[in-house]
C-alpha cells in the first residue's frame, strides 16, 4: 500500500509548529527544537494509552491501533497525533519486524524510520559506551576514586541482536594490579541511557539525570556516579540532538512523534515524555502506546512514566485478537521465530474460552488504575463472527466500558471509526480518575510484591541473596522511594512463559536487582531475563535488500 507523503513542513504547520522550531532531516522527517516548550500551555488535551493482552511473538496489532486510532480521530474532526517508540535494528532484523505499524495504518517513510532514522539510537549507544570507557580509564590511571573493581556494573550496548556478546571477559589493569573482568553487552534500547532520554522533562533534567548514574562502589561501599568520573557533560553533548523528538506522518498524513525506544520486558517500554509533552500542547487528543501487555508496558507507563511526567491518561485501549487469545490456551504452543500454528486461525470454542481468562485479568489490571477501558478486537479476514461476538460480550462482562472491532490494518482510519467514537464517549470528562498502583513511601520489597501479586497474580515473591543485598544497598543509600521496573517475560502474565492464561498463586522469583538512579527507578530481574536478544533460526534480515534504484525491500 503506497502512501502519498506530504512535505514534513506541511505536517508541522498543521500542528501549529513554527518554522524556527522545525529542523528538517530530509523531506519527510524532522526534529522539533525544545524551544517550542516555552509557548505550549495547553492543558485540556486527552491522553490515550494503547496496550494489549499477553502477545504472541508477532504482536497483537498495538502499533497499528495506535496509528489508526489517531487517524480515525482526525477523520472525525478532532486534532490528534500519535506518539510511538523508535524501532530497534535488533528485532527489525530478527523475528518481530518493524515498529511502524502495517497495512493501511502505518507511519512513513518506513525504510528511513526503521533503519537509521535521525541517529538517536547511535547517540544512545555512543554515550553509553563512552561512559564505560571513562569508568575503566579512571581505574587504569591509578584509580583515584578507590573504586572496588568487582562492583563495576555498567555494561556496554549496541543496536544489534548478538547473543555472543551477552557475556564477555577481558583484562583491566590499574598500576601493578591486573583484574579479570566479567561484563557484557545489552541492546541499546534496553540501556539506562535510553530510559533517561525517555523520562527527561527537558535538557536540564537530562543533564542532571546523566550525572546521577551509579556505576560502581568504592572500597568503602559508597556509590560511584558518572559525575564523579566527569563523564556526565560529555554524554549530554552526545545526546544534545537526540533529546529533540522526531516528527513524521502516518499513511494518511496524521502527525506522528517518534522518540526513544526502551524494551518493555527489560525496561520501561515507552516513548519519551518530551514527545508526549509537545503533542499534548499541540493537539486535542494524543494516542500513545506501551510495549507488550498490560503487565509489562502499561504498568510501567502508569507507575514510572506518568509519575515522572505528571501526565494523567484519560482512557486505555486494550488490543486483543482471536489468535492472541487462543495462544493463551493450553491447546497451543508457540515458538518465537517459528511459523505460527495453523490452529490459531480456526474456530475453537474451547481454546477461546481458556484464552479469555487472559483478557479478563488484563481488564482487571487496568481498572486498578482508575481509567476507562475500551477493548479493541483486531480483526483478521478469517476470524469467526461467533467468536468475535463472544469476545465483545465477555469484554463487557469482565468490566470494560466498551468493546469495538477494528479493521485499521485493512481499511485505515475508516476501519476504526467506531473505536474512535468510543474513545470520544469515554473521555468526555476533562478530568482523569487515574491513580497509581502504589505510593512511593512503600519499601522497594513492598512495591515489588504489590506488582507481582496484583498485576501478575503471584502468591509470594522469593528473593535470591544477590537481590536482597542490592535492595538493602538501594534503601541504605536513599533510593528506597524510587518506583520499581520489573524485567520479565512478555509471553506470560507470570515470569514463566509456559504459564498461560491467568496463572495465580505461583512464587515469583527475583534473581537480581539493579539500580538505575539516573533513569529514576530500581530494576528487578525475574529469573534471568536477557537484555541482549538473539537472532532466530531464520532472521527477517535475510529478506532485506535494495533494488537498483536504492529502494529498500523486505522490511515489511
From TrEMBL:
Keywords: ATP-binding, Ligase, Nucleotide-binding, One-carbon metabolism. InterPro entries: Formate_THF_ligase (IPR000559), P-loop_NTPase (IPR027417). It comes from the Bacteria. It catalyses: (6S)-5,6,7,8-tetrahydrofolate + formate + ATP = (6R)-10-formyltetrahydrofolate + ADP + phosphate. Transmembrane segments: none annotated. Pathway: One-carbon metabolism; tetrahydrofolate interconversion. GO terms for molecular function: ATP binding; formate-tetrahydrofolate ligase activity. ATP binds at residues 56-63. CDD domains: FTHFS. It holds the Pfam family FTHFS. Its EC number is 6.3.4.3. GO terms for biological process: tetrahydrofolate interconversion. Belongs to the formate--tetrahydrofolate ligase family. This is Formate--tetrahydrofolate ligase. It comes from Velamenicoccus archaeovorus. The lineage of its organism: Bacteria, Pseudomonadati, Candidatus Omnitrophota, Candidatus Velamenicoccus.
Amino acid at each position: 500500500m503506497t502512501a502519498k507523503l506530504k512535505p514534513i513542513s506541511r505536517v508541522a504547520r498543521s500542528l501549529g509548529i513554527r518554522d524556527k522550531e522545525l529542523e528538517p532531516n530530509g523531506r519527510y522527517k524532522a526534529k522539533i527544537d525544545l524551544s517550542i516548550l516555552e509557548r505550549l500551555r495547553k492543558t485540556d488535551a486527552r491522553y490515550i494509552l494503547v496496550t494489549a493482552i499477553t502477545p504472541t511473538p508477532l504482536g497483537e496489532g498495538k502499533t497499528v491501533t495506535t496509528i489508526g486510532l489517531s487517524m480515525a480521530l482526525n477523520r472525525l474532526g478532532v486534532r490528534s497525533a500519535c506518539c510511538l517508540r523508535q524501532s530497534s535494528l535488533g528485532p527489525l532484523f530478527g523475528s518481530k519486524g518493524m515498529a511502524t505499524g502495517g497495512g493501511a495504518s502505518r507511519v512513513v517513510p518506513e525504510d528511513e524510520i526503521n533503519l537509521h532514522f535521525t541517529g538517536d539510537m547511535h547517540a544512545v549507544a555512543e554515550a553509553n559506551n563512552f561512559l564505560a570507557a571513562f569508568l575503566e580509564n579512571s581505574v587504569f590511571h591509578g584509580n583515584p576514586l578507590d573504586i572496588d573493581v568487582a562492583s563495576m556494573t555498567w555494561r556496554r550496548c549496541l543496536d544489534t541482536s548478538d547473543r555472543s556478546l551477552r557475556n564477555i571477559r577481558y583484562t583491566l589493569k590499574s598500576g601493578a594490579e591486573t583484574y579479570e573482568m566479567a561484563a557484557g553487552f545489552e541492546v541499546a534500547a534496553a540501556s539506562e541511557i535510553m530510559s533517561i532520554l525517555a523520562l527527561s522533562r527537558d535538557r536540564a533534567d537530562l543533564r542532571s539525570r546523566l550525572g546521577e548514574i551509579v556505576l560502581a562502589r568504592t572500597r568503602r561501599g559508597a556509590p560511584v556516579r558518572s559525575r564523579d568520573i566527569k563523564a556526565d557533560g560529555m554524554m549530554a553533548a552526545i545526546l544534545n540532538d537526540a533529546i529533540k523528538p522526531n516528527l513524521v506522518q502516518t499513511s494518511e498524513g496524521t502527525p506522528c512523534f517518534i522518540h526513544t525506544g526502551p524494551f518493555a520486558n527489560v525496561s520501561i517500554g515507552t516513548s519519551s515524555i518530551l514527545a508526549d509533552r509537545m503533542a499534548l500542547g499541540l493537539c486535542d487528543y494524543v494516542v500513545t502506546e506501551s510495549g507488550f501487555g498490560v503487565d509489562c508496558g502499561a504498568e510501567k507507563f502508569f507507575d514510572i512514566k506518568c509519575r515522572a511526567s505528571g501526565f494523567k491518561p484519560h482512557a486505555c485501549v486494550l488490543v486483543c485478537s482471536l489468535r492472541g487469545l487462543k495462544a493463551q490456551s493450553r491447546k497451543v504452543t508457540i515458538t518465537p521465530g517459528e511459523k505460527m500454528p495453523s490452529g490459531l486461525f480456526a474456530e475453537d470454542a474451547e481454546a477461546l474460552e481458556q484464552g479469555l481468562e487472559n483478557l479478563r485479568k488484563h481488564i482487571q489490571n487496568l481498572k486498578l488504575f482508575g481509567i476507562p477501558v475500551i477493548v479493541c478486537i483486531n480483526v483478521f479476514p478469517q476470524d469467526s463472527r461467533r467468536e468475535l461476538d463472544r469476545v465483545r460480550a465477555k469484554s463487557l462482562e469482565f468490566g470494560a466500558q466498551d468493546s469495538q472491532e477494528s479493521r485499521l490494518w485493512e481499511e485505515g482510519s475508516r476501519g476504526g471509526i467506531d473505536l474512535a467514537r468510543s474513545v470520544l464517549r469515554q473521555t468526555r470528562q476533562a478530568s482523569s480518575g487515574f491513580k497509581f498502583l502504589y505510593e512511593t513511601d512503600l519499601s522497594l520489597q513492598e512495591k515489588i510484591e504489590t506488582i507481582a501479586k496484583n498485576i501478575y497474580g503471584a502468591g509470594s515473591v522469593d528473593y535470591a541473596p544477590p537481590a536482597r543485598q542490592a535492595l538493602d544497598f538501594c534503601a541504605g543509600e536513599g533510593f528506597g522511594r524510587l518506583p520499581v521496573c520489573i524485567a520479565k517475560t512478555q509471553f506470560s502474565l507470570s515470569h514463566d512463559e509456559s504459564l498461560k492464561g491467568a496463572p495465580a498463586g505461583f512464587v515469583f522469583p527475583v534473581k537480581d536487582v539493579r539500580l538505575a538512579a539516573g533513569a529514576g527507578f530500581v530494576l528487578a530481574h525475574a529469573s534471568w531475563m536477557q537484555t541482549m536478544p538473539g537472532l532466530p533460526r531464520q532472521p527477517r534480515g535475510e529478506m532485506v535488500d535494495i533494488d537498483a534504484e536504492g529502494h529498500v525491500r523486505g522490511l515489511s
